[in-house]
RNA sequence: GAGCCGUUAGUUCAGUGGGAGAACGCCUGCUUGACAGGCAGGAGGUCACUGGUUCGAAUCCAGUACGGCUCACCA
């Protein structure tokens, strides 16, 4: 084994082995308790980013843990066709080749897109492998697969038949760039510094005019009314009168509607039912005509009269100029307002009248809301996200699900060419030549919403995977897609399977750069997880992702932390190297933990049991950060800095039996620790585990360690704690007095009682070695040496005669300082104990602890004071 | 406008009713038979602020300030 850990060797070796041995394939036999996670399917648009790496690392930790704990673990992989995003990518590629999808035709374009999909799917699988993810590839799914498409049609037809899907003409969010409708949540609202345009519309009878204002003046071309509040005294007399719409010359009525806010603007509103959702509603109430003034690309149409052919923003500029000249537009006010942008293309979204398909959300949302009052609810971790989720559901509007794209699930609706009759069903009507299928496809999230069950054979409820592995145990995802995905899976799962699709939802945040900024292409601050792996290994990256933060919070990426985690891997590597070099070909069968163990052996075994217990508990609570901290400290501090150093005594000694016991303990501790760490750092733990004495073919299928209280030895912990205190005091003195570690000193200890004396005697060999003392005295009747440095510990005093090195004044000053510290402690404790309330109300054990401390501090202070007196005398 | 989160050591973050923690960074010393990407020792914090509850508050409650996020409205 090389002295430095090189993750590249290890990490390329094990993944092929794991998959060849089918360790990640769920059995599906029903003999073991199942544990299921479905992966949030990444888009087949490109490379995985750090967010994916984080999300999947957390899932892999849970999957590996549960697999080791004996569950029939299914972690189901797959990908999402990502309608708009993928189509845009393929169109981009076509454009480079000087082509256009319309030239190519729908069928050829889809062929090209499938090619793209295969290419990127392979790419994504390679990245999953590099991350070490324990995915069951035998069950990989894609949202456009045959089976999943069947599920999509089943859901569509069923919801349609229940009246929960309908088609109609409404105002939707239109993206003129990609030329498709969007759902409400695919629109990003940004505050924009715009203008408020004030206009006068003349009354037909010539008696004057009425003032209106708008932020989108081009929509005035489609106005079909002006509205005022029925109780607005300024306008009462005008209700029912007619105004002549400038430019167009259309005569439109002044109507009364309570929606109008009298306080806002002039109190009169222009009404454009085909270009604004509120105006559309009002139009329905008053039977107003709906006039579209643009086409699907945002270009003004024939209803825009002389502005026909202009882009909507060119039209705005020109129209404003013209209206100003005509005196219609009399004021332009700076006005900050919120403007919707397409989440995908960034284009300004146009509220647009259009015929689309919708899901009626009220009944579905209600079910999901009610679920949270039941025992079998979805548990959000951390639970604050439940509030976010419920608030959204309670205020939900109908979901526009049709998209004017080619790449996706085609809507299973057919229209008769002549009668215009509509047919909704799994298949086309029997005489297909007389019908044509709806051109549109479904929102990508419509199919993603079915993912937890469509991937398991549903709608075949008898499918063995669906029977065994559904509902899933936990969903791991970022808070940014709670609305898009989590909520939709829940209401569709309830509607179609009658069960929650997952018991827990583990929410994480976003990966940010070191300055806390979101990683983005435009900022160029993104980090490719594959680069991180190439430099430091997947284990280092995974440890960082697992331990960097607590659930629900964002994570800042720091290269230094990744590097520190490589150091940790290297530390583990070298500790193992040491163990193996001193293992003497110890075989697994020959390991013996029942021999005559040293206090170090008993202590580290106790610490191991504590670590097993705590790590298991924390894993179950998704507290991976704490798990990492515990394992890091156990390995680095307890195993490496203390146990290995202590184990060197028997290992380098002549006592064969003692050596055998210590070898066994060391091998056992490392072997068990590798198992505990394996879910987080799968590669290095497998590598080391395979080198160590072990039983079985792979750590991936080794049993998760079980805590055994009977192996704990509290005495040994007290022993080692005392030894550590003594050793630290000596080291501290050496450092302060500039006594080189290589220079021998005398160490004289005066125990206060038999118990401490015995402990010190038991630890004598360790004390001698770690203090590098020539003479070591343990004597309750010790005659205090002159000219010596002293330390007062709980239960013992220690002296180091360092004649010639000691400055008496300095030593007194040091002890005075020590005494001051103790004074403060005593004062603090006594203040507490003098408090009647504390004595009466605080729990007994707390009071007892304080009394114990008081005694200890006072004793120490006494000793220190006495020592000062001696030195002064 | 409503809701949520954060504010703890130079930095990144844990801790969430009973003596302020870790990692990294910093300072000092060390070719100690696994590791100098290491070992040993050390410095460093009125836990944002103001009140309240409590025998006891970094921790619970209310408010304030600053930073961030989400939703809604915006003619």
The rounded distance between the terminal residues' Cα atoms is 60 Å
Point out poorly predicted stretches: none
Question: What gyration radius follows from the Cα positions, in whole Å?
Answer: 37 Å
Instruction: Count helical runs.
Output: 27
| Approximate shape | elongated
Write out the strand line-up for the largest beta sheet, numbering strands in chain order: 6-5-14-16
Portion of residues in beta strands equals: 15-25%
Can you tag this structure with a few keywords?
single chain; four-stranded antiparallel β-sheet; 873 residues; elongated; 45% helix; RNA-binding; 27 helices; 18% strand; four-stranded mixed β-sheet; alpha/beta
């Amino acid at each position: 084994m090389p002295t430095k850990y090189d993750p590249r060797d290890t990490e390329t070796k094990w993944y092929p082995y794991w998959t060849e041995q089918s360790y990640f394939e769920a059995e599906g036999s029903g003999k073991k308790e199942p544990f299921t996670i479905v992966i949030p399917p990444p888009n087949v648009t490109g490379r995985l980013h750090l967010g994916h790496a984080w999300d999947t690392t957390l899932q892999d930790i849970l999957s590996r843990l549960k697999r080791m704990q004996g569950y029939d673990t299914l972690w189901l992989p797959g990908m999402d066709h990502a309608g708009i995003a993928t189509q845009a990518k393929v169109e981009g590629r076509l454009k480079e080749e000087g082509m256009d999808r319309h030239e190519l035709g729908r069928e050829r374009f889809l062929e090209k897109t499938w090619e793209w999909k295969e290419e990127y799917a392979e790419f994504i699988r390679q990245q999953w492998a590099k991350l070490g993810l324990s995915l069951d590839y035998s069950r990989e799914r894609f949202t456009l697969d045959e089976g999943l498409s069947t599920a999509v049609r089943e859901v569509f037809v069923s919801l349609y038949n229940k009246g929960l899907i309908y088609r109609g003409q409404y105002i939707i969010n239109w993206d003129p760039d990609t030329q498709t409708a969007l759902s409400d949540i695919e629109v990003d609202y940004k505050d924009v510094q715009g203008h408020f345009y004030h206009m006068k519309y003349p009354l037909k009878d010539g008696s004057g005019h009425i003032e209106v204002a708008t932020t989108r003046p081009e929509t005035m071309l489609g106005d079909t009314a002006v509205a005022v509040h029925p109780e607005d005294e300024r306008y009462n007399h005008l209700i029912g009168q007619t105004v002549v719409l400038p430019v167009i010359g259309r005569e439109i009525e002044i109507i009364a509607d309570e929606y109008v806010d009298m306080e806002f603007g002039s109190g009169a509103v222009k009404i454009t039912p085909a270009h604004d959702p509120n105006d559309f509603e009002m139009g329905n109430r008053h039977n107003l005509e709906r006039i579209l003034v643009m086409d699907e690309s945002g270009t003004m149409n024939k209803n825009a009269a002389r502005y026909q052919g202009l882009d909507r923003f060119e039209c705005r500029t020109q129209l404003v100029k013209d209206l100003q000249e005509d005196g219609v537009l009399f004021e332009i006010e700076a006005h900050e307002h919120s403007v919707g942008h397409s989440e995908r293309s960034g284009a300004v979204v146009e509220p647009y009248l259009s015929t689309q398909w919708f899901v009626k959300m009220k009944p579905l949302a209600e079910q999901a809301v009610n679920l949270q009052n039941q025992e079998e609810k979805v548990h959000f971790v951390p639970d604050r996200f439940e509030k976010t989720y419920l608030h959204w559901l309670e205020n939900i509007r109908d979901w526009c699900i049709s998209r004017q794209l080619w790449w996706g699930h085609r809507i299973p609706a057919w229209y008769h060419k002549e009668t215009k009759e509509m047919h909704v069903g799994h298949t086309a009507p029997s005489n297909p030549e007389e019908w044509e299928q709806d051109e549109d496809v479904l929102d990508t999230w419509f199919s993603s919403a079915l993912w937890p069950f469509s991937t398991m054979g549903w709608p075949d409820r008898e499918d063995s995977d669906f029977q065994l592995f559904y509902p899933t145990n936990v969903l791991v995802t970022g808070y940014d897609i709670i609305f898009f995905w989590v909520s939709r899976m829940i209401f569709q799962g309830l509607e179609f399977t009658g069960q929650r699709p997952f018991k827990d939802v583990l929410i994480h945040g976003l990966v940010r750069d070191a300055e806390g900024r979101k990683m983005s292409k435009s900022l160029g601050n993104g980090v490719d997880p594959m680069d991180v792996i190439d430099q430091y290994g997947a284990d280092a990256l995974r440890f960082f992702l697992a331990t960097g933060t607590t659930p629900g919070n964002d994570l800042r990426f720091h290269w230094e932390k990744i590097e520190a985690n490589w150091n940790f891997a290297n530390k583990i590597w070298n500790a193992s190297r040491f163990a193996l070099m001193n293992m003497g070909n110890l075989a697994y069968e020959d390991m013996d933990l029942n021999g005559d163990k040293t206090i170090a052996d008993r202590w580290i075994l106790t610490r191991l049991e504590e670590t097993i217990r705590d790590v298991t508990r924390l894993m179950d609570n998704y507290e991976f950060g704490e798990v990492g901290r515990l394992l890091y400290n156990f390995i680095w501090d307890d195993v490496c800095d203390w146990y290995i150093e202590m184990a060197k005594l028997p290992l380098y000694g002549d006592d064969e039996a003692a050596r055998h016991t210590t070898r066994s303990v060391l091998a056992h501790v490392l072997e068990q620790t590798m198992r505990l760490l394996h879910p987080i750092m799968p590669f290095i733990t497998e590598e080391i585990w395979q080198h160590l004495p072990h039983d079985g073919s792979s750590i991936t299928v080794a049993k998760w360690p079980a805590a055994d209280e009977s192996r704990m030895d509290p005495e040994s912990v007290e022993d080692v704690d005392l030894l550590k205190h003594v050793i630290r005091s000596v080291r501290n003195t050496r450092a302060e007095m500039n006594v080189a570690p290589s220079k021998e000193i005398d160490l004289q200890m005066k125990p206060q009682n038999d118990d401490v004396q015995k402990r010190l005697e038991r630890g004598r060999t360790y004390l001698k070695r770690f203090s590098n003392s020539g003479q070591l005295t343990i004597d309750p009747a010790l005659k205090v040496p002159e000219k010596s440095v002293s330390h007062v510990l709980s239960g013992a005093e220690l002296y180091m005669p360092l004649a010639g090195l000691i400055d008496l004044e300095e030593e007194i000053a040091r002890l005075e300082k020590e005494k001051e510290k103790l004074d403060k402690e005593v004062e603090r404790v006594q203040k507490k104990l003098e408090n009647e309330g504390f004595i009466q109300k605080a729990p007994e054990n707390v009071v007892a602890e304080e009394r114990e401390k008081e005694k200890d501090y006072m004793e120490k202070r006494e000793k220190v004071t006495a020592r000062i007196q001696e030195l002064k005398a």
